[in-house]
Amino acid sequence: YAERLLADLDRLEWPAPIKAMQRNWIGRSTGATVSFATGADSDGPAIEVFTTRPDTLFGATYMVLAPEHPLVEGLTADAWPDEVPTSWTAGAGSPSEAVGTYVTAASRRSDLDRQSDNRAKTGVFTGSFATNPADGQPVPVFVADYVLMGYGTGAIMAVPAHDQRDLDFARAFDLPVLAVVEPSEGWRARHHLAAGAPATEWPEAYVGDGVAINSANAEVTLDGLAVTDANAAITSWLELAGVGEGTTQYKLRDWLFSRQRYWGEPFPIVFGADGEPQSLPDSALPLALPAIDDFTPKTSDDEDSEPEPPLGRVTEWTTVSLDLGRGDGEQTYRRETNTMPNWAGSCWYELRYLDPTNSAAFVDPETEAYWMGPQFDGDCGGTDLYVGGVEHAVLHLLYARFWHKVLFDLGHLTSSEPFRRLFNQGMIQAHAYLDDRDFYVPAAAVAEVHGRYLYEGKEVRRVTGKMGKSLKNAVEPDEMCERYGADTLRLYEMFSGPLDQSRPWATTDVVGMYRLLQRLWRVFVDEATGNLRITEHEPDDRTIRVLHRTVASVRDGMETLRFNTSIARITELTNHLTATYPDGGVPRSIAEPLALLLAPVAPHIAEELWARLGHDSSLAYEPFPTADERWLVDDTVEIPVQVNGKVRGRITVTTGADRDALEAAARAEPHVAALLDGSAVRKVVVIPDKMVNFVLAQQ
Q1: Taking each helix axis from N to C terminus, what angle separates 563-580 and 541-559, rounded to the nearest 10 degrees?
Q2: What is the arithmetic mean of pLDDT over 253-260?
């Protein structure tokens, strides 16, 4: 599925950084697999390597196996060849001693540590040589921990002239360095290298593009070819010679289900007397976990023993008699006691949400097609909008896509992707406070005094971080709701900044949203009497225009997830109504759309206002307001009037006024008229709805 997971990213409305993270995680690499023969007569096990730069094959001067490579033991010679440098042997008396010691030491290092660029390269010679298929030359085979078993084949052909890690290793072990790609003139000049300077004099590996050099044998020559052409030529030769082939590889690995878990979703797998795994029939599904009290795995002093999962102790569950319907009749089986990693549920929950009470299927096909099916030819379908953090980029989001595609291929779904559109929300942050020991102190107990922050009388340092218990700066939503109401909390969170940006929490700013709701309430209701202040009168044109502009802006804000701008426009409309109708009397034709606009951001007060307006049903069933385009266009526009390119006045004119009308209005502007009096106008530049400029003749 790796290629489809990669290609289908182009069909998704996801942030570019998330797509890039998934592409990097999948790690598609195109290149070639090359076979290096071993043994005196090429009768030893061949070493397979994957390289993205097969064009550099002629520059491979040694090979490296990962310590975990299965060929390490077989390629470790019985004795050192003659004249082996001491640096290659690590001072050991034999290859087996050197390799054994090194492999043991490497097993204690993490992959991250092994690949660190700051760490000196280490390794040992196996005592064996391989044959470079391009030139027939013997190349020594080393074991080194900078090569990982998890990527490619766990073995590399080392080209030190054109890979920095290989060059570092080559210089540490005095290995040949042969240039097979001509460096650019700029690179040579930057390093003060003369043309033709050997690679042994280079200060670093050359990893850029260039034409091939020193790369020819009796059957193929790459010399003079650019990288792309050289790769194609050598790959064709490898395939014809039977020592390699063009290959695409991926870094993607199943690191979730392959890791053992002690508790999670049970695998619907049983093992028979022959030890072979068998899947449970549909009639035995779903498989439920037993109720147990002790989840601690059983351990042993024997370091080679396998820990026993909690399920392993529930014999009445692990041992089961079943007829699997394969003609064997009822047999005794042992259940799998490892479990799935809790991703088995989170990979398809969006589908179950569509049909949560269906006991016959995880989702009805028609229901899935209605809610998540493709909307047009070429559409991948899926959830219309998924709001989630960037931390899920290569975990939940990637494996949910894989899971979804499997279900699609099995014919259970019409959508080939789970989430059509993704939006990454920011984090709510908060100020935290550190004492002189760099310990966090309760933020709620810190007082600001003359610009200083004090806790129990001692000054503390303020920092900003993620809100949470560890920083002792959490704000309880229940407390905010009890004090200001749930609508106030919702408004504050949505108004505090763009949804995709992290922003600090400020309790003092919550009051602003509380006051906005109070003003909104007073637009509808007389606080003293509780009577409705709404009339059936027709609104003036200016109020109608403000309403429709608010509707257009709120709708746009909702669709683009810019809730803060939607709330800002609602605030402006509220302020306009408060100023225009200070004694009440807001027209119903304005008040009802306002209540509907308020509903998504402050649903409780909106429902209350809707009921007070005389409606028996919930406003949730009402259509959302739509702006009338006629009221979105200004009747008048203010434009600048210039004299010799400098603004000397402004005029308000009817939108779309013709050039003559604009010139006449501009001439009548008092400041402009005074400047034009007695002056000869050489030219008049008129741009409708934009500006008027009088160019005066020079006196």
Answers
A1: 170
A2: 70
